[in-house]
Design brief:
The complex is a heterodimer of chains A (about 300) and B (about 500). By secondary structure, chain A is mainly β. Chain A is built from 1 helix and 17 strands. In chain A, the strands form 3 sheets. Chain A has a 12-stranded antiparallel barrel with strand order 1-4-5-7-8-9-10-13-14-15-16-17. In chain A, strands 2-3 form a two-stranded antiparallel ribbon. In chain B, α4 runs parallel beside α7, α7 packs parallel to α9 and α17 runs antiparallel to α18. At the A-B interface, β7 and β12 of A face α1 and α12 of B.
């Protein structure tokens, strides 16, 4: 086990990064990566992220709002991924989020946001010897709001929608450590009863996530591209985001992880993400950092 | 360990995904609890009387003209499509309320503030709360007056519904027992069409289509003949004409203050300033000069006294309360703030009260005339209370709490007009006091709602408690005039 320990760590970091990269006001993206955990392997990740934007897309037009200024969002997450068996992983995440505008009269908001849980199944795996390894995985997840935070304000930490996420993940890994991953998913988003006293539709969405990277013994890194497109929905009213909004985006970024020298079982991870295109979302830039702890192995189920 | 059924399950999950639509509430065909045979004697708002409107004569039972029309209705019922049945049922659930909903939807669409500096466009009005209050009142008054006249002729002519005169007519639903000439649906359709197209000129084609289908739906249902519709439409149009003539002279044209007199308002404290991201002209500075429905002197007897001066002990105590409420970050405060906010892109607070009145009207199965009476009384009270409130806002020109203390963060958007008195408190108590009289069993519930609406603006940080208290007092005072009217209009 000791020989592949760093690899395991960096595998987990990929999962962690997916969470770090999500905008806290949006449903979880990229709940899972293309590396199976392995039976009895568990990682816990504590992470912090900082995101800000002074422009947002009202419809597809980038605008600034002097009534809000710059929206700054911080989040701290606890993330756990565990290999139940060689073909089944369980993944859990809970974030605490703080968000505040720099101008105007809207108050800051904070709170425990949404619990995310997912199961990942290995559906198919084939080794090509020297050429590498191809793997197909299926994942199903749920996202549940944990507190009664405000769902529809210019400054809010989430949308209060309960979400079901199903996706297929194709992962190819070359013996050199270079890998490529593509996944496609469907996000089914539950309707929300807003404070005004009625139910509103939260549009379902398609999501694609692509990644190209290197997973070596001493370092892990990848570049990612995340595309989200809602099936329907409204555009932002005069500055007021709403659960019914059609939220689309193209985001990209880079993440790097490495074991921390002298600290057995610990790795560090840093990342950044940028919004390239959007509709009804912030034109946000995100930085994140996290600490990964690899728990002692157990026998699994 | 990799059973193929897992793959199958996931594929099924992917393909079975369909968005879950929000359910639209459906209402059954309305069966009125009473017919009010003496409804034709009730007092009209505009003073219009049956003799003022010349109607196409009622074709007598057995006449060739009526028989030909009965045959037309019969044919229409026999070739009726599913879509026509749906349409007929939709209108038959309460036409006064359907047109009220249509008006609320138009307010939703037009309740978008113009960017500051953009000149108002008369054909594309901004349906701000005062505009909306007046629109609902005009609609309800036209509907009510038209129905009083309709009722008069109905019980004078006393001609049964088409399906009762011709057994071959396939009636879609049982009749209400109301005489058919003139058609109350045509009266409502035309009264509503004329008022709404004058208020929202760009919607004329859409509204014409609705009015057309509404009238035809009565033939598809087998309830009326053309002659019923023509007579009803004539009355509806005449009643709306009176309301529109009044509206052309009620000073609404100066409500937006085209000459910017608001810039010259002088008060003995720091005057109101716009807190909009890009500051600009407040909403309808001269709406307080618009002519009220009830007696002007009696209406303006409800004008509140001057607010506590900024810096006075009473003022400091009150703003400390606002600071305390907003600093708490209480989720329940936020909920009621949002519930009653009814800001831009909604049917506005007066629309909220129309939706509450709709529930009460439905729960008691009121006939069309009584439904229109409820809305006409309530919406006149709401508008007049709004007029007094707006007058106070620009007479006293009091800053919002966040202008006095920018540390006060608000749970809802800060409206771009002065604080004193609260429009929400005023509109809501006017509506609730009127409804409490008309639905006495609901008194406690409806007054509690109005109190919550008023309180919602204080706990959300955009109003002082004295804005709320004096707003409620105006609302109640004006509603008392509506109640006085209700006691003497012949319906009670």
């Amino acid at each position: 086990m000791s020989s592949n320990f760093p690899i395991t760590l960096v595998k987990t970091s990929v999962l962690a990064l997916l969470f770090l990269l999500q905008c806290p006001s949006l449903p979880a993206q990229g709940l899972v990566d293309g590396f199976m955990k392995g039976r009895g392997q568990t990682d816990a990740v504590l992470s912090y992220s900082f995101e800000s934007y002074s422009q947002y897309y009202s419809g597809t037009t980038a605008v600034e709002n002097p009534g809000l200024g710059t929206i700054r969002t911080q989040s701290a997450s606890l993330f756990v991924a565990a290999g139940i068996s060689s073909w089944l992983d369980v993944i859990l995440n809970v974030p605490q989020v703080w968000t505040a505008p720099s101008q105007g009269f809207w108050p800051s908001q904070s709170g425990l946001q949404d619990f995310s849980g997912a199961l990942r199944l290995l559906a198919f795996e084939r080794s090509f010897g020297e050429v590498g390894l191809l793997r197909l995985m299926l994942a199903g997840g749920i996202r549940l709001p944990l507190t009664a935070y405000v769902p529809d304000a210019p400054v809010a930490i989430g949308h209060q929608s309960t979400q079901l996420d199903s996706r297929a993940i194709l992962h190819y890994q070359h013996k050199s450590g270079v890998f490529a991953m593509a996944q496609g998913g469907y996000l089914r988003q539950g309707n929300v009863v807003i404070d005004r006293g009625y139910e509103v539709l939260v549009p379902d969405a398609y999501e694609g996530l692509f990644r190209l990277g290197y997973a070596g013994a001493k370092i892990y890194g990848h570049a990612w591209l995340n595309i989200r497109e809602a099936r329907s929905g409204t555009d932002l009213g005069p500055g007021v985001p709403f659960p019914t909004n059609k939220i689309d985006f193209v985001r990209a970024g880079i993440d790097v992880a490495a074991p921390i020298p002298g600290m057995e079982r610990f790795s560090g991870v840093v990342g950044t993400g940028f919004t390239l295109q959007g509709r009804n979302v912030g034109h946000a830039t995100r930085f994140s950092a996290g600490l990964i702890y690899h728990l002692p192995g157990w026998k699994g189920l | 360990m990799k059973p193929s059924y897992i793959l199958f399950l996931f594929l099924a999950l992917f393909t079975a995904c369909a968005e879950q639509p929000v359910e639209v509430e459906e209402f059954p065909v309305s069966m009125p609890a009473s017919l009010d045979p003496n409804g034709g004697t009730w007092r009209t708002v505009m003073g219009i009387a049956p003799a003022d409107v010349l109607l196409p004569a009622p074709d007598s039972v057995g006449s060739a003209r009526l028989n030909a029309q009965l045959l037309e209705t019969e044919r229409m019922t026999l070739s009726r499509t599913a879509a026509q049945e749906e349409e007929a049922t939709w209108w038959a659930s309460g036409a006064v309320l359907r047109w009220n909903q249509i008006a609320r939807d138009l307010v939703v669409k037009y309740n978008r503030p113009l960017p500051h500096g953009v000149a108002p466009n008369p054909v594309r009005p901004v349906a701000s709360p005062p505009f909306a209050a007046r629109a609902y009142a005009m609609l309800s008054v036209a509907q009510y007056d038209a129905l009083v006249l309709t009722w008069h002729h109905k019980f004078e002519v006393n001609r049964p519904a088409a399906s009762e005169l011709d057994a071959d007519i396939d009636a879609l639903f049982p009749g209400s027992g109301l005489p058919a000439y003139p058609s109350e649906d045509a009266a409502i359709a035309l009264a509503s069409l004329e008022v709404l197209k004058a208020l929202f000129p760009l919607e004329e084609a859409y509204l014409q289509g609705l009015a057309q289908n509404h009238q035809l739906s009565r033939l598809w249902a087998g309830a009326n003949v053309r002659n019923d519709l023509e007579a009803g439409a004539t009355i509806g149009k005449a009643a709306a004409g009176r309301v529109l003539a009044r509206a052309s002279q009620d000073r609404m044209t100066i409500a937006s203050d085209p000459t910017d007199t608001w810039l010259g308002i002088i008060v003995p404290y720091t005057p109101w300033e716009s807190l909009d991201a890009v500051p600009g002209k407040p909403v309808l500075p001269r709406f307080g000069e618009v002519k009220p429905w009830f007696d002007s002197l009696e209406t303006f007897a409800t004008l509140p006294p001057p607010p506590p001066a900024i810096g006075s002990l009473a003022f400091e105590e009150d703003i400390a309360l606002v600071t305390k409420f907003t600093a708490e970050g209480n989720r329940e405060y936020w909920r009621i703030a949002d519930f009653w906010a009814d800001g831009s892109g909604t049917y506005a607070p007066p629309g909220h009260w129309n939706s509450i009145a709709e529930k009460y009207i439905r729960s008691e199965n009121l006939n069309e005339l009584r439904a229109a009476r409820v809305l006409s009384l309530m919406n006149r009270a709401v508008m007049d209370a709004g007029v007094v409130c707006w007058y106070a806002k620009y007479k006293y020109f009091l800053p919002r709490p966040s202008q006095v203390d920018p540390r006060i963060k608000t749970a809802t958007g800060i409206p771009n007009f002065p604080a004193y008195t609260s429009g929400h408190a005023t509109f809501s108590m006017a509506a609730a006091t009127t409804l409490a009289h008309l639905f006495p069993d609901r008194r406690d519930e409806v007054i509690a709602m109005a109190e919550e609406a008023g309180r919602s603006r204080v706990v959300s940080g955009i109003h002082y408690q004295f804005d709320n208290i004096y707003g409620q007092a105006t609302g109640k005072g004006v509603a008392d005039l509506a109640v006085k009217w209700a006691l003497t209009d012949g319906a009670e």
